[in-house]
Every structure is written in C-alpha cells, then in structure tokens.
Amino acid sequence: MSAKIMPHHLQQPLPKPAVKRPVSESKTENSFQNMLANKIDEQQELKISKHAEQRISDRGININGDVWNEIQIKIKEAKQKGVQDSLVLTNDAAFVVSAKNETVITAMDREEASSQVFTNISGAIIINK
After folding, report:
1. How many angstroms separate the CA atoms of 123 and 10, rounded?
2. How far is 83 from 77, CA to CA, in rounded Å?
3. % of the chain surpassing 70 pLDDT
4. Residue 94: strand pairing partners
5. Distance (Å, whole) CA 41 – CA 23
6. Which residues of 80-105 are buried (b: 16+ CB within 10 A; e: fewer)?
7. Domain ranges of the chain
8. How far apart are alpha carbons 104 and 47 in whole angstroms?
9. Which position has the higher pLDDT, 12 or 32?
10. What is the pLDDT of the chain when averaged over all its residues?
11. Taking the alpha carbons of 110, 114, 117, 118 in that order, is the dihedral positive or negative?
C-alpha cells in the first residue's frame, strides 16, 4: 500500500451555510400569527346547547343583539381569567354558561332565577342592559 494521499480524497462537500432570517421577518410572522389567532377568537360565537335552546323557547326569553354581544365579550374575558362556568345575569334572564366551551348550558327568566341556588359556578357576570 502506498501512503500517498490523492487530491480527490481531500475534497469533501462543504456544509450548507445556516440561513438566518432577518429580525423584522420573524417579528412579522409572529405578529401575523397573533393577528390570525385573535381574528379566529373574535369570530367564534357563543353556542347554545339544545337544553338551553329549549328552555329559552319554553320560557319566552328574548335577548336583543346588544345584550347578546355583551354576554359573548364578557364570557371571553371570564375564560381568559380562568373561569370555567359562569352565571350571567341580565335584566330579563339568567344563564349558566360554560366559559371553557363557550356554550350556554341553561337559561331561565329573572323571576325564576331569584328563587334558585346556583352551584358549581366559578364566576358571575352581571349585565345591566
């Protein structure tokens, strides 16, 4: 065997240079992702369970759009603060809402709610509209 090193043995592929993203580009991506997530959160509406829908219908509960929007906003705030289930009181009705699932669980008119005991509630929202 020869101890001679041939020139073609010395050639090795060079590693690819690391691609560095400019700082502004990564901030833009994070901002876009945050904006997208916020828009998706804003578009999600409060759901009504079949049980609550039946209760609303049976009891003739009518909630106008402004109050409904206020309930949705307050439930999102409650969810961010860690509330699982909330009692929502309006001038005309009372709702038990799962903030975690953003779903109305049950509904009753305000007179009926005055004689009830609410359990397993981790927060209360009072809307005077």
Report:
1. 72
2. 9
3. 70
4. 89, 108
5. 27
6. eeebebbbbbbeebbbbbbbeebebb
7. 46-126
8. 6
9. 32
10. 81
11. positive
Lookup result for tokens 């590693």: 15
Q: Is the dihedral of CA 56, 110, 101, 74 positive or negative?
A: positive
One-letter amino acid of 20: K
Which residues have a Cβ under 8 Å from the Cβ of 66 and sit 6 or more positions away?
Answer: 129
- pLDDT tens, position by position, 13-36: 556 566 565 555 445 556 777 776
CA distance 87 to 99: 10
In this predicted model, what pLDDT tens digit does every residue of 71-110 receive, in sequence order?
A: 999 999 999 999 999 999 999 999 999 999 999 999 999 9
Task: Determine contact, residues 52/105, Cβ cutoff 8 Å.
Answer: yes
The correct answer on CATH 3.30.2310 for the domain covering 46-126 is: yes
Cα–Cα distance, 103 to 14 (Å, whole number): 58
